[in-house]
């Protein structure tokens, strides 16, 4: 029988670290998308309307990452 992550602190920590890596990856990808949109819609009023929800998601990701960075003493 395998121990659940609640019983195994290493499994729980590994899950959280994998989550952190996923968040970092998503943040980079979204930042790239914002850059691409701003390049493709240069001088367009639609540009900021399109990127605003993406910027909000990036902000949420950064908040989630900050919690994990503090937990893992990365900052």
What would you say this structure looks like, in words?
With 75 residues, the chain is mainly α. The protein has one domain. It has helices at residues 9-40, 46-71. α1 (9-40) packs antiparallel against α2. The radius of gyration is 17 Å and the shape is elongated. The relative contact order is 0.14.
Radius of gyration: 17 Å
List the secondary-structure elements in sequence, H or E. HH
Separation of termini? 37 Å
Shape: elongated
Mean pLDDT: 90
Poorly predicted regions are: none
The count of strands amounts to: 0
| Residues in helix, % | over 70%
The number of distinct helices, counting runs of at least 4 residues, comes to 2
User: Main β-sheet, in a few words?
Assistant: none
Number of domains: 1
Structural class: mainly alpha
- What is the strand content? under 5%
